[in-house]
Amino acid sequence: MLRVVKPKNARSKRAMLAREPQEVEPAKTAIFVKGSTTGERLNGVLRDLMALKRPNAISFSKKNAVHPFESTDSFIFWAQKNDAPLFLVGTHSKKRPHDLTLIRMYDSRVLEMLELGVDAYVPMSDFSGRKPPPGHRPLMTFDSPLFDTHPRFQQVKSLLLDLFNGEQIDGITLAGLEHVVQVSLGPLPASFTNESTEGKDLPPVHVRCYAMRFLASGQRTPRVELEPIGPALDLSLRRHQPPDEDLWRAATRKRKLEKRDVESGLGRKRKNVAVDEGGDMVGRVHVGRQDLGKLQGRKVRALKEERGAKRRRVEEGQMETEE
């Protein structure tokens, strides 16, 4: 049970208010923790992911005897002390080799956990591409419909977006896009179904990082080429802990709009207007019924009848009627 600390002065009160949930959250800090046994592969994975997360990353250099799915007391203490809602824990054992656990916190409590196995890894040092500078927000792509329909892969997408997400911005220039993080799935196992939750029945997750190069195209929009910069990860899904419904509802709750915001139109649902997956606003326009009988088409000379052809056709019709 954590003790409740009351502010002693105005400065400490402002610091405590800054740690409370905000309407627009700043960039989340991630803590990288090494277990009692890690190995060269996990050390490289934590080092490369921390390089992509900087400057919002904290590394624990000492090894810690932690087991996330057995006890979370250490993470609650570290989250409150460092004001960090994300943890990446690397552990290695004979039963679960090269184990990487992603932990998300809310209000100094564990919200959800996801355990991944690092099956293959290529470090950033093996690639000669231009590395992204610290603090840049990557462009992320998820190349499978399962990331929007399957609950296990929905959790993977949510945690990865939270990990690589930076400051909330309204827009970005084309020159501000430095690198891309691509997340895709491997071939589906024969035992896979929409209700599959076990790791052995789920396809592996491939994470690839690319640097963006803008080349001349002769047009206003440049030609974009992707250059691999690493790291390259092949991950398999293992254990997971879904979020508690009450805690998830509290974490995703939105503030009540004030009267002046409602009067200005903020929060009002616009009819026939929506936002697609790419973030573009799309709308539906309803047009009234058109009278095509009054439509004036273009008169083409090739379609005109010869002079007297209509009169001859009428006379022939009258003769057939008389007979």
UniProtKB/TrEMBL annotation:
Major localization class: nucleus
A single Gene Ontology CC term: nucleolus
SMART domains reported for this sequence: Brix (SM00879)
Stretch list, region Disordered: 303-323
Ranges of compositional bias, category Basic and acidic residues: 303-316
Entry keyword set: Nucleus
Compartmental location: Nucleus, Nucleolus
Annotated GO MF terms: rRNA binding
UniProt-listed GO biological process terms: maturation of LSU-rRNA from tricistronic rRNA transcript (SSU-rRNA, 5.8S rRNA, LSU-rRNA); ribosomal large subunit assembly
Every Brix domain range: 28-246
Pfam families cross-referenced by the UniProt entry: Brix
Family note: Belongs to the RPF2 family.
Protein name, UniProt field: Ribosome production factor 2 homolog
